[in-house]
From TrEMBL:
Molecular function terms, GO-annotated: FAD binding; oxidoreductase activity
Keyword terms, alphabetized: FAD, Flavoprotein, Oxidoreductase
Sequence ranges assigned to domain FAD-binding PCMH-type in this UniProt record: 46-221
Organism ancestry: Eukaryota, Fungi, Dikarya, Ascomycota, Pezizomycotina
UniProt source species: Podospora appendiculata
UniProt protein name: Oxidoreductase
The keyword Plastid is annotated on this UniProt entry: no
UniProt key word Ribosomal protein: no
A Pfam family: FAD_binding_4
Amino acid sequence: MANLRRACTAAICQALLGLLGPDKVSLPGSGAYNASLTSYFALQVSDIHPHCFASPRAADEVAAVVELLTSNTTGRAGEVAIRSGGHMWVAGASNAPGGVTVDLRALDAIQLSADATTVSLGPGARWQDVYAALDPFGLSVAGGRIGTVGVGGLTLGGGISFFSPRRGWTCDTASAFQVVLANGSVVEANARENTDLFHGLRGGSNNLGIVTRIDLATFKQGDLWFANIYHPLTTVDEQIKTVARITAPENYDVDASFVTGFGYASTQGLTVVNNQLAYAKPAANGTNPAYYDAFLALPSFFNATAVLNMTSLARQGNSNLPPGAARYLFATTTFRPTEAMLRAAFDAWNSSLPGVAGIRGVTWSLSFEPLPPSLYAPGAAANALGLQGRAGTRVICLLSQAWADAADDAKVYAASAAVIREIEAAARRLGAYDPFLYLNYGAPWQDPIRSYGRESVRKLQALRARVDPGGVFTDLVRGGFKIPRG
């Protein structure tokens, strides 16, 4: 069976060469193939070798690729993956072992509408390029915070922006999607056409088709105030008190977006607190936002504060998670940010450090990203994330790790899973637990789409049955997080 699958995949890659031409299909050993491998965010994804990369440059070419991949003439490929920016580190999500990887990076158009109220984006566009196109017009979108991340994956997984407390999830700001379905048809999904698909793509990830265009709402935006501050770990008690206080709905400032994190780096033998504080409306007189006074008053040994545009800020963010520099892992959970719960999460992470300190090149981080009601509630009925019926602020808790050697993969995965289990046990004990898992931060053992809740999953299952009755984007596109079967 494996030999037959390899033969089918080889035949498909040859057929793709005939369909698209040699400049759009790369095979092992070629310079283009090797460049594609090394362009991924995480080294463990670069370790995956597909039989070929197919790089269509237009929606009709994507449609032709889908038709070929599902044709009975050549037989189905062993596995297919869809890549936009290549930032999803979960193995198989954006690169297909021994299969066909459909690389959408050439679909990178950025087109501002005539009235400047929307921008049409190819899924392969990178956020830093989107901002570079919009900043000269005094406009922005609620897009990604890391410049090299692709538009497609972030948006379909939800998407968190510096502007999300005021604008909502990135997916909530989409007014239309162009999608290639499993049968090769190219359709529009918006508030008038294919409304169920429009709903499902907002959080449904790669399960429903290949998105070839996303229209996002623009808004007026100038420079932002931003501070990147490193504090000694001795400030942890005050950090936690501050997060608990300022994230309360009655205290939250919707122009503020921040991440409070704790990090250990083996190369320095150093454990620190890091605050990344953004504010969308910097004061004309150059004063710091009062919302962040408590953080700014804490002792620090590094404080870089600037007023800058989104292009510069997104490019600056690249240094936090440099692509191709390491093996990476994310894992996540969600809870109410009570002081006791924040402390329990920190304690679980802190107590795990002795067990991982010997891993070569390890950085071991935990961060809190607030989800105030202004972010998740207004669009809750219009997306697939399942966050209706909630009140109060939540925090997305992100465990993020980097390390050097594949030999340590199992140890890192096991230690990370143990930390998440301990945090979730504490959340249940303290009455702070929320089942929601942010898909873009999910680990392989987690099930984000099931976490959306029974009703959202039921709608997604019905939608899949309509637009993909043969299960192409479930059985052929196996990587990533799937809509549950039952």
